C-alpha cells in the first residue's frame, strides 16, 4: 500500500512537474520508504534545481552507483495512474516517515542506555537532539501574501488602540522610564541583560520578574548560578523593603515578621516556576519550557541566569556553542511566543578603559548574541568602580607608608544606568534608575525626584538619550 502511494506521487510529478514546487516543501528523499523511490525523487529534485526537464530520459541520466535508478523501477512509476490530490498523499508519506523515525528512535534509546561509556547527561542530550531533529525536519512556513499581512497588521493596530495604553505594548519591564524606551518586551523577543559582576543584573531581572507576576503573568526561571531559596530571599527583600541581610539571619522585628508573612503568602500563590539545576543545555531548556508552558499556559516570560553557564550539546568551540545557544533561545522565544530574558557576562577588558560603560563588543563569548538578540541592556553602576578605585588607592598608599583619606562615601541608594545597546524596533540610549542596596531593588529615579527628566533628542539608532541631572543629591526613595 505504501509503495503504491509513493509511486502515485512520483507519477503525478512526471505527469505535471509543477507539482514538485509544493511537494519539495513537504517531502525529502528520505521520506520514501522504498529505496528506488528515494533515488527517483532525489533525481527529480536535482533536475528541478538545475532547471532541466523532469522526464524519463533525464532521470535515468542521473542514475549513479550510490543512487541507482533502473528502467524497470521507473516503468513501474510511469504505469501508475497520477492522482489529483497529491498533497494529501504526500502527507501520508511524511507521516509514515515520521513513524519509522520514531521507531528507529526507540531503538536508539535502548542502545544508548546499554552504552557503558556514556554518562546519563550525554545520553539525554543526544536523545533530545535526535528527537528535536525528527519533530522539526518538516516544519516550514509558506509565503504570506500582502493582503493577509496587511489585515493582520491592521488587526494588531486596532487591538493596541483598544487597549488605550500608548506606552506599553509588551511585557511590563517594571520601570516607567525603561517602558518609554522599549514599549515593553514583545512576544518572541530575546532580551540580553549584560553586566560585569556585582552590577546587579540578577537583581534587575528579579525586579522585572516581580512586575510580571504582579500583572498576572507566569514566569519560568532557570537559575544556573544560585539556589531557588536565594532568589526568593532577594524577591522577598525587594517586596517587603526588609534588608536582605536581616532576612538571611532571621533577625526581624514583630512588624517585619507580619510584613514578611503577608509577602510569603502572596508569593506562594504566584505562578513562578524555578529550575535551579546547575547543568542545562539548549535541548533541555526547550523540552522543559514546552512542558511547563503546556501545563501552565499563563507563563508569559522565561529567564536564564546566566547564558554562559549553559552547556553546549556537542564538543564544539565555546564561541560556536554560545552562538548555538543564543540562536536556540531566539527560536524557542518565537515558537512559544513569549519573551526570553538571558543574563550574560561581559569581558573584563572594559575595566581598563577610562569610560567603563559597556558597549556591544564587550559581550563575553559573544558569537551571535548581538545578532540574535532583539534588545541588549547593560547594567552600569559607577559607584561600584569608584569604590574599587578608592580601595586600590588606599592600598597603594599603605604600601608607601602614607595615609590616604578617601572622599568617597558609600550610600545605601545610588544611581544606576540601564544602557540600551541594541533595540531592533526602537531607539538606543540609556535610562537612569535608583539602586537600593539593602533590599536589592531598582526603582525609577523620576519617581523619587521629578527634576530628573528624560530628554529625548532625535531618537535615531545612533543617538544616546541624555539626562538633566537632579538639583540636589538627596533622593527619597518610595517603597515599592
Tally of separate helices: 18
For the record, the CATH class of the largest domain is Alpha Beta
Distance separating the two termini: 68 Å
CATH superfamily of the largest domain: P-loop containing nucleotide triphosphate hydrolases
Number of domains: 2
Q: Which parts are unreliable, with pLDDT below 50 for 5 consecutive residues or more?
A: 448-480
Q: Indicate the percent of residues in helices.
A: 40-55%
CATH architecture of the largest domain: 3-Layer(aba) Sandwich
In round numbers, the mean pLDDT is 81
Topology readout:
Elements: H1 2-15, H2 20-26, H3 35-49, H4 56-61, H5 71-78, H6 86-113, H7 120-136, H8 146-163, H9 176-182, E1 190-195, H10 201-214, E2 218-223, H11 228-240, H12 244-249, H13 254-268, E3 272-275, H14 282-295, E4 299-305, H15 318-336, E5 340-345, H16 369-372, E6 375-380, H17 382-399, E7 413-423, E8 429-436, E9 441-444, H18 445-448, E10 454-455, E11 466-467
Parallel strand pairs: 1-5, 1-6, 2-3, 2-4, 4-5
Antiparallel strand pairs: 6-7, 7-8, 8-9, 10-11
Helix pairs in contact: 1-6, 6-7, 10-11, 14-15
